[in-house]
Amino acid sequence: MGENTDQSQKNITGFRPPEDFARNAIVNDPDIYGRAEDDPESFWEENANGIEWYRKWDNVLEWEPPLSKWFIGGKLNACYNCLDVNLKQRADKTAIIWEGESGDIRKYTYKELLEEVSSFANVLKGTGVKKGDIVTIYLPMIPEVVIAMLACARIGAPHSVVFAAFSGESLATRIGNANSKVLITCDGYSRRGKVVEQKNKVDEGIRSCGLLDKVIVMKHYGNDVSMTEGRDVWWHEVMKDSESSCEPEVMDSEDMLFLMYTSGTTGKPKGIVHTTGGYMVATHTTTKFVFDLKEDDIYWCTADCGWITGHSYLVYGPLSNGTTLVMYEGAPDYPDKDRYWDIIERHKVTILYTAPTAIRTFMKWGPSWPQMHDISTLRLIGSVGEPINPGAWLWYHENIGLGKCPVVDTWWQTETGMIMISPLPGITTTKPGSATMPMPGIKAAVLDEKGNEVPPGQDGYLAILKPWPSMVRTVFGNEERFIETYWSKWDNKTYFAGDGAKRDEDGYFWIIGRVDDVIKVSGHRIGSAEFESILVSHPSVAEAGVVGKEDELRGEVIYSYVTLKSGVEESDELKSELTSYAAKNIGPFARPKQIIFSDDLPKTRSGKIMRRVLKAIANNKDPGDVTTLQDPAVVENLKEKTRILD
Ligand code: WT7
């Protein structure tokens, strides 16, 4: 038995799993931790039997640090595991309950979903997509995003889903990096009652990239769009005569299932590569364990399919467990601030998985909104995306969980593919604000700069010490960056997560937040360097330093320190122009909160902007030793400029 894993043996103060919940939970025997720790490979192998394979693996793991392969020699299809396997027992069970912002509802049974997916898979084949070709998907939260993803998986074409709120330029960068020839998008969609003209964004963005052969456009909102002859086709037209059965492609365990772009410390967004076998085993298993999914649950994950949470815990995990899932297209305050609770009441949702930033917003709106509805069907509630402060955790537990639902605060990342640190709701005593313990089979630690474990209560870096099935395999087209980013902090066997953390006396993990130049705005991940390069592409800007400032509601907001080109006047107009410029070039979620003009920025003697110092200034913290700066006086000047904003 590992030293710190078996929490049930200790007398920990916190929220114990309610007795009847624990009794009926899928996982309620704490021995699972010890068994998995003693022999992680057998643990994962046992769970791999939850997936259907055309051919089973020869070996569970091949680990040549930092490169790993899982379920070597195994053959399977991810779409088959989400749809076909459910046909025997639950063909007519609802797979998706979709609700549009306008109130439209569409439902698909497993059988219907399989037909749609197969038809669309045939459409993709018809446009020439072959196994291994990367297809880009740029759709809002409509059933077609799931259909398109699964259709890709069915024919062995890795998908790259780009969050619908990204700009056309951001889309083009990702299409270019993936060398993707086919794009699936829609005319437009509704956000707080206003149209977002998605197809127009596509046309603007890809003018420059000229890579695409085919654009398939789903007619969703009904706004006017222009269609490029020979390239653009309507979804409904190509689907009309498409054959509704399609043999799934037999995929190797290590064939790429999808690419997911995410922001890092430097440069352009990187394509995180996930493969098929390990990812399916990991998401299938963790969905079942963490959410305690049962046959009659109605499960709602509010994440967007444009992010990893939508991939792992809206599509692949839940559907491979035969779940009925709810999918909602719109804003939480449209038409009013009770929209989520109204959805939960009407669809009798039993499990809710959402983000701290949403929870803090609900908290600000007050408990009268959830109180307008019967949300007592909920039996488990979860959180993901950024640290949840104890106050928000307690509010969530009390007002949404009605004091009776276990809360699962789940720590993980695009790169990990699966939930890594989280309570098991039938076992773990939870403490508000702590993601608690690594999942069975996961070995995590908090290390210092040298790679030694830090004592309880002390801050350090979060590290993963053993490989896991859904770990990122590489950065698409850039193995060097993969190794440099994740496997170079200590030795090449220890994964550097980029988060700060500490453990308490009970061994519980408390995640503090990013220690690199990644900013988390409302849970969205934005890279400082990426943002700076957008700002300096504006004709008035000479230099920019972009950092996160702590924010009660959004976790962090963006502070941009900008030096203008000589001769350019500082003005409020220019500030708002730069704000819109950034929002337009990345996406509206990346709107900077403050733009601060300054004649100079804190730089090292070699001229590198010191974000560490800027971050301290933005957060009214001590910037530490600044004597190595080119001009230490800059700090006082910026402090003053920042102070007057607060
Ligand atoms: C980063 C990963 C995981 C899917 C959504 C975000 C932060 C995520 C938690 C949590 C504290 C969290 C970390 C992590 N994060 N979940 N429960 N507690 N921090 O995926 O965009 O790849 O971001 O989100 O900083 O490194 P992502």
How does this structure look, described?
By secondary structure, the chain is α/β, with parallel strands linked by helices. The chain is about 30% helix and about 20% strand. α19 (about 570-585) links the parallel β28 and β29. α2 crosses α3 (about 40-50). The longest helix has 17 residues, at about 110-125. 5'-O-[(S)-butoxy(hydroxy)phosphoryl]adenosine binds near residues 262, 384, 387, 499 and 514. 5'-O-[(S)-butoxy(hydroxy)phosphoryl]adenosine binds near residues 262, 387, 411, 511 and 525. Its EC number is 6.2.1.1. One of its GO terms (molecular function) is acetate-CoA ligase activity.
Summary, kept brief:
With 646 residues, the chain is α/β, with parallel strands linked by helices. Helix 14 (356-365) packs across helix 16 (390-400).
Please give a handful of descriptors for the protein shown.
646 residues; alpha/beta; 7-stranded mixed beta sheet; 31% helix; 22% strand; binds 5'-O-[(S)-butoxy(hydroxy)phosphoryl]adenosine; 3-hydroxypropionyl-CoA synthetase activity; ATP binding; metal ion binding; AMP binding; acetate-CoA ligase activity
Unreliable stretches (pLDDT < 50, length at least 5) are none
What class, by secondary structure content? alpha/beta
Could you say which small molecules are bound to this protein?
5'-O-[(S)-butoxy(hydroxy)phosphoryl]adenosine
Major sheet strand order = 5-4-17-16-18-19-20
Give the averaged pLDDT, no decimals. Answer: 95
- In total, the number of strands is 29
Keywords: Acetylation, ATP-binding, Ligase, Magnesium, Metal-binding, Nucleotide-binding
InterPro entries: Ac_CoA_lig, ACAS_N, AMP-bd_C, AMP-bd_C_sf, AMP-binding_CS, AMP-dep_synth/lig_dom, ANL_N_sf
Cofactor: Mg(2+)
Catalytic activity: acetate + ATP + CoA = acetyl-CoA + AMP + diphosphate
